[in-house]
Amino acid sequence: MKKIATISKYFFKKNLKDIISFSIILxxxxxxxxSAVMINSNIMKDYDRQFERLNTADSFFIxxxxxxxxxxxxxxKNINGVTSAEAETGIMLSVPVDMDGSTQExxxxxxxxxxxxxxxxxxxxxxxxxxxxxxxxTNYTFIHSNENKNKYxxxxxxxxxxxxxxxxxxxxxxxxxxxxxxxxxxxxxAYSKLLLNNKDKQVVTISVxxxxxxxxxxxxxxxxxxxxxxVLSKNYKEQAKxxxxxxxxxxxxxxxxxxxxxxxxxxxxxxxKIEQTIEEEMSNMGxxxxxxxxxxxxxxxxxxxxxxxxxxxxxxxxxxxxxxxxTLSTIIEMQSGFKWNIKxxxxxxxxxxxxxxxLITIFTLxxxxxxxxxxxxxxxxxxxxNKNNKNHFExxxxxxxxxxxxMLKNFVNTKKQNIxxxxxxxxxxxxxxxxxxxxxxxxxxxxxxxxxLVEEHPSVVITxxxxxxNDIRVQNNVKKVLYYxxxxxxxxxxxxxxxFIAENYKNLANDLCYxxxxxxxxxxxxxxxxxxxxxxxxxxxxxxxxKNGIEKKYKVVGFIQSVNYSGEVIELTVEGxxxxxxxxxxxxxxxxxxxxxxxxxxxxxxxKQYKNNIxxxxxxxxxxxxxxxxxxxLISIICIIIIVITLLLIYLILYILISSIITKRKQELxxxxxxxxxxxxxxxxxxxxxxxxxxxxxxxxxxxxxxxxNKIYKTIFNLVGAYKVSFEYPVIIFLAVAIFMIIITIxxxxxxxxxxxxxxxxxxxxx
Amino acid sequence: xxxxxxxxxxxVKSFGVGNAKQTIINNLDLDIYxxxxxxxxxxxxxxxxxxxxxxxGMDKVTKGNIVFKNKDICKMNNDELAVFRRKNCGFVFQQxxxxxxxxxxxxxxTSGLLVNNNKKxxxxxxxxxxxxxxxxxxxxxxxxxxxxxxxxQRAGIVRAAINDPTVIFADxxxxxxxxENSTAVLDVLTNLNNNGQSxxxxxxxxxxxxxxxxxxxxxxxxxxxxxxxxxxxxNDEERTKKLDDFLKEMGx
Lengths: 767, 252
Prior knowledge:
Oligomer: heterodimer
Low-confidence stretches of chain B: none
Distance between the termini of chain B: 31 Å
Shape of chain B: globular
Strand content of chain A: 15-25%
CATH topology of chain B: Rossmann fold
Number of domains of chain B: 1
Number of strands of chain A: 20
Mean pLDDT of chain B: 91
Number of strands of chain B: 10
CATH architecture of chain B: 3-Layer(aba) Sandwich
Radius of gyration of chain A: 33 Å
Helix content of chain B: 25-40%
Low-confidence stretches of chain A: none
Distance between the termini of chain A: 34 Å
């Protein structure tokens, strides 16, 4: 062992700089990969743990207080599978809140925090010692609320409310903006103050624990529907989890893809360096074999530095991932509102260590297998049986300038370096294109992101007791007005489903249909992705929908997505819905403005103008803008991180390649300098030698990205329930990424090649 | 009256730092004349190669200046020196230093096309030069590791001569060759000189030194002695004796 260690030490010292580069790449890859693995395993576990600890409801239903009775609660308790149920009164308001500097219209439900709940327990985390009564905000609201964090201020029906922020509350029932309703928790006096002017907004939340949350949710929905009890909001365990952790899942996927690419790059670096060492150290290896060392011993000595530094930097990467997790946790918390407790996760760490160790060992072993084939005598004489001395691109016969021909010669004589650079640039072009597309669709053209993840997004939503469409249509800045209702409900096969109702789906801004068509006639229906999967439905099938004891047959004409409702939605036309509920008359009007920037003024004006007819208004454009700001900052952070890592990777790879070429060709460069080649010419020849592979790799990356990027995004968004990805894939983004990669390769390559300048011709020859 | 092509004044070249500083060339003055075959001799470590590389602008002086064809090459940056070298200097090295993975012809063209872009002209000139050094087409199409050392060195001379340089600098060109190949190489250099090519050659071989018309003997980084000889002729005993006496005097 000692003798192997001595040789190993020699190889380590000789390749120190390159082993450091390999280790840095591996370290970054491991830190990202380990973070992804830990987020994936821990956040889910922690979510479930907290869910259980707070005895969170498996499903809940918010109904107007006027429709609630004790008998209703008893009936629900008696539904098969329901283990317990509890009712709690609250005040449900549409509240314009200041979120990250802009106003967001949110449906909030205010509870008395002092009520003694058994289901949906709340953990108070005190932030202020103010003795006056105040409010405990959910974590999501607290993170995004106004900067001073002392007062929670909003205005409803021209009455202003201001509550001292006492702290935050840990709860698992509502959570974030995606959950449609956000809970806030008032102390007794503050609750009474809010109640004073909002008695008509009182609601009851029926929280249910059940063996099968989805089944109980469906059974209760059906029961409430059959008793004509309108449900203001409802949700169940799995759906809420998907809604809250959507961004977390996307982050995990991005980290996984990026870190895997980096891991592959680090493995190719080790392969390249080991093969180069074999080439350079052939005589020494031959001498070692002649002295009696077996090829197995030489192989172990050769790969040992990579395995040891690989293990060391994997451990460092894992350690660093613990330092990165608080930042990632904050990013996830911004969207999910879920505060995740970071704990040591030995199992995930061991898994990462094992993956890295196995891959490095396998890769380095394969790369050093050539040592087995070394003939000691030939090796000592430095005869490389595989060495190709062919004179490619003969100057005499090749057309073009001598510098260009020497560049071509460089290219063919540095095949291995070019292959490594090609692989790296190809992977980085694809990864950067992925980020470029994400940046474009979130930061530059956010409507595409909105269309993918949310349902219909008008500028303003109003509910009125009179058809105001024609009146509003003629107003300045109004593009269109239509009836649209996202709060219908019908039953199919014993399950109750949220139902979207529109006069004409063609007029909507966001087409949710990812297969087939939206319903056009009263006999047609489109169903959500989850319903399609559950019942194996195809377009052209007929299904029976029912409501309040009335059952009608509908033809399935298409399938729609809905991230917020996990694909458990149904689309009907107004006439189609009326077949099941003849008393239905649309009341919710979606208003689309030409200039959404003026939505606030428009909302205020319309409220004043139709104050006797409008029962509620919502400035959707501003709310969406506010929610998008969060995604924009999130994606901007991710983009910056990935750009920095990409630049670092290109730098490290080019450092390894250019250093190896300068070292290997030092004498040749010296001869060329002696002949009168200037530094500029030599640098150009060196960089030019990389250009064919850089250009081919980026073009390939460009083509592959263009061809598969929509599939990649489809796969990612499928995981969060979006089946129709409304992203655009502009060629200019792919092209810009490819050009950026080439330019950055030239710039970094030129900077690194300046090493040539520092060496005098004389020393090049003499060394 | 011969034309001065290089004038070196107060040349100093030191290596190392502080106490470990070693002066190889010590306040040396030297003129090099056109059409001369100048031989630089001296014992090991006398600074022969260092002087040659300083004169050719391959290495930087520590002190002093060198005027080469009316230009102070000590003031030039690396790229200016490279451009200057390609037009004015040809090099023949002891280790030959041909470029790997290239034919002998490509090696010559790599140098020639730097100065003359007309490939046709340069190829034809290279072919003539190869012919003059007795290297047939079949040989110059081969790579350096497929030909003999002598052939390779003669190709090296072709490479050095392709741009009609002001001076060919030869650093012990026969040092790695056997007797037969050495003579062939020296004949090529002599022929070039006879045709007006200025040559500076470093050697510690008396047989090689005989080809020169001016012998400079270095000792401790300074010119210790100088000898002028008439034009080289084969079996010129008087010339040989003159050189023998000079070298004896120098402590050779």
